[in-house]
Each structure stands twice: as structure tokens, then as C-alpha cells.
Amino acid sequence: MASINKKKEKKIFKELVSFQQRDFCFSSGHILGSMCTQPHPIAREAYIQFLETNLGDPELCPGTKEIESRFIAFISKLLHAPKTSEGQIVSGGTEGNITAMWIAKQLSRKKEVILSENAHFSFQKIASLMNMKPIELPLTSEYIMDITKMKKEIHKGIAAVIGIAGSTELGTIDPIPELSDICSDEHIFLHVDAAFGGFVIPFLRELHYNVPQFDFKLKGVSTISIDSHKMGYSAIPLGTLMIRQKHWLESISVESPYISCEKQAGILGTRSGAPVAAAYAVTQYLGFQGYKSMVESCMNVTNYTKKRLEELGLSLVIRPTMNIVGVKLKKPGQIVKKLSEKGWRVNKVERLSCIRLVLMSQITKKIIDEFIPSLKKACEEVGEL
Ligand SMILES: Cc1ncc(COP(=O)(O)O)c(C=O)c1O
Questions:
Q1: Nearest atom, ligand 1, residue 197 CA
Q2: Mean pLDDT, rounded, of the chain
Q3: How far is the first Cα of the chain from the last one, in angstroms, to the nearest whole number?
Q4: Measured between alpha carbons, how far is 338 from 225 in angstroms, rounded to an integer?
């Protein structure tokens, strides 16, 4: 092992810390606009322990490969994936969506994709990368995909339909059961982007919230993206693409002669086992019950936030489906700037004329009590209140 020159080390870390101090951190509670999270302490520890593993060359790390299999088994159970299914570890929602569209294109040899305005911008990257053509539908008054409009767009050139289960902007859920029926009848690939909602919707259903089914229980669902570095309470970068039929992975596999496996599927080659070990550790620590409690507590804070915003005289774009709140404003860009000056990180959604608050697990009612006066002041300064 390389010996460490203590003097040099101290100097470098002094410099690193000086840069780090300029960053916002999740633990401050002042990041209200991110879907990522302060990783669970268990995730931190596991991450560091598995830093040198490379799951791109699995025979070098059979133990870490087993962790990956067990983690995928957890996700399979969560999403009611059938025995025929397989999970592909990805870096997050973007790579999950790219991989799903890659499979859909390979299987169908077609190029057009039906999605709605609330689809994540990663689908624009996909269109450019893979020469696919998105057919973007306007939303209903509920900010979800319009099924009547969707049906009109179905024709022979469609490679896939995208359903969003937890939209980036408002957390809304497309009518996945209807999409599943249509796609199943028409033999069209249906990808569900549950990058955010995958770790929320199953627990909302258990908590008796009125949210639609979105997973493999629906026979038309082909693939689902779900991210551990969002509501999975784990470290960046980790997502999973669950695939209904394991053999579909062959369509995105290449021979990998100089490493320990004959074929490699997916986009990445070398990939760290650290985020996989971290995500697995969190699932084992929390279990389904732990995630359910976390979602319950996020929803309590969401409902409290809604109440506090309404008391201030502000209105919401739509009643929150999950722990994301869109606050209607005339000048969202100016409000975000003012809030930033006051130490808060919030995102604007110009298209919907709102700011978006994401109530992740580290956001407490106490933090909301600190945030509301800052928001009030920001609104007064730009003439919103
Ligand atoms: C619904 C949805 N899909 C995909 C993504 C992309 O995820 P990532 O940034 O982890 O690649 C996001 C990110 O916010 C998202 O909200």
C-alpha cells in the first residue's frame, strides 16, 4: 500500500475542506429542491468499505456480486417483479431510462416514443443519443398523461410508451393501469419511470393513500426505473432498472472477451460496488416497515407544509400526490433568487409558474417553520404578497 506523506495529506485535505465548505449539504435542511438525500448513516459506512470493488468484472468480487443479487431481490419484491425478471444496476434515473429505451428500440426496431410533458428531461437526451422521436402529449388538468390523446398517437412506428410514476416537477402519477391495458393489447413496450416514486408509491398504498398501481402486477409494464439515491435513502449514484424478461438483456449485451464474464449488458463497463453495498445495507436496515415509516413521516411534513403555505395566502399547483409541493407564483425565478440569498436552495418550474419543494426525510416541521418566514419575506420583496 502506498505510504502517506502526512504533511502533503494535511495540505490537500485543508484545500478539499475549504472547497467543501462552499457546498450546501443535505444535513443543514436548507436544500428543499433536490430529489437526492442525505444518505442513511449505514449507507455511508458500507460505501467506504466497498470503495475498491468493480462490479464490471464480477469474478473479481463474487461477494459483492452476491450483495448485488440480494439487493435486486429486494427491489423485485418491492415491485412485484415476476420470476422471469432481472434487475440491471444503473447510476440513476437517467441511465435507467436510457437503458430501457435501448431495450425497447432493439426489441421493436422502431423509433417513436409516446410520453407526456411531465417526462424527465433525460428523454430528450435519449432522443438525441439514440435517434428516437418523442411524441410529447400535453397534460390533463390533473397534470398527468391524457389517455384519450395517447390512444390517438398509437401507430405502427411506436417503440415504447413512457408512464411517469412520480413526476419530477409535481410528483404526479400517470394512469399506469390504463397505459398497461393499452400497451398489452397493442403489444407495445411500456416503461414506467418511477425513479422518484418507486420508493414512495408502494408505501403510500400501504398507508391507504389513493394512488394507482404502477408496478409489475400490471401485465403491460415492461420495465421500471427506481432510484436508491432518491427516496431509497442511499448514496449517489444508484438506481435499478427492473426488466420483466431477463432475456431482453441479451438485446443490449456485447461480448466482453478480456474480463471475467463472457457478455456484458448495459452502458457502463467498470462500475463501483460501493453504492450497491450502501443501498443494500439501507434496505436491510430499514426493511419495508422502515421505508413505510419514512414515507409516512415525509407525508406528514408535506401536509404540514401545505397548511403553512396556505396560511401564508399562497396556493398550490395541485394537491400533493407524494412528498413534492408546487407553490404557484407569478415570479418563481425571482423568488428562487431571493431564497438563495437567504440560504435556501429551492427549484423553479417556469413552465408551471411555480417553485417546487421536495420534502425528503431530512426535512422536518421545524425546518419548515424556519423556511416559511424566509419565503414570506422573499414574496414581499418581489411583490408576490
Ligand atoms: C422521474 C425522474 N426520472 C429520472 C430522473 C433522472 O434521475 P438522475 O438524475 O438520477 O439520473 C429524475 C431526476 O430527478 C426524475 O425525477
A1: 1
A2: 97
A3: 62
A4: 35
Output the CA 360–ligand 1 centroid distance in Å. Answer: 15
Q: Domain segments of the chain: what residues? A: 27-36+288-381, 42-283
Ligand 1 centre distance from Cα of residue 211 (Å): 20
Nearest Cα to Cα of residue 242 among 87, 110, 124: 87
Ligand 1 atom with least separation from CA of 164? 1
CA 91–ligand 1 middle distance (angstroms): 10
> How much is the pLDDT for 257?
85
If you take atom 6 of ligand 1, which residue's CA is the nearest one?
A: 93
- In this predicted model, what pLDDT tens digit does every residue of 107-126 receive, in sequence order? 999 999 999 999 999 999 99
Pocket test for ligand 1, best of 36, 116, 118, 122 (most atoms within 8 A of CB): 122
CA 92 to centroid of ligand 1, rounded, Å: 7
DSSP string computed for 115-161: EETTS-THHHHHHHHHT-EEEEEPB-TTSSB-HHHHHHT--TTEEEE
With contact defined as beta carbons under 8 Å apart, do 273 and 50 qualify?
A: yes
What class is the 42-283 domain? alpha beta
Taking the C-alpha atoms of residue 258 and residue 277, their distance in angstroms, rounded to an integer, is 25
pLDDT digits (tens, 9 = 90+) for 158-197: 999 999 999 999 999 999 999 999 999 999 999 999 999 9
Mean pLDDT within 25-37: 95
Q: How far is the CA of 35 from the centre of ligand 1 (A)?
A: 8
Using one digit for the tens of pLDDT, what is the confidence trace for 293-327? 999 999 999 999 999 999 999 999 999 999 999 99
CATH class for the region spanning 27-36+288-381: alpha beta
**24/39 Cα distance (integer angstroms):** 15
Residue-level pLDDT at 2: 78
Q: Which residues pair with 145 in a beta bridge?
A: 139
Summary count for the chain: helices (H), strands (E): 11, 12
Q: Look at the alpha carbons of 84, 90, 93, 99 in this order and tell me if their dihedral is positive or negative.
A: negative
Supply the residue whose CA is at minimum distance from atom 8 of ligand 1: 93
- Distance CA(282)–CA(80), nearest Å, equals 20
The greatest distance separating any two alpha carbons of the chain, rounded to the nearest whole angstrom, comes to 68
Residue 157 CB neighbours (<10 A) = 11
Distance, CA 159 to ligand 1 centroid (Å)? 21
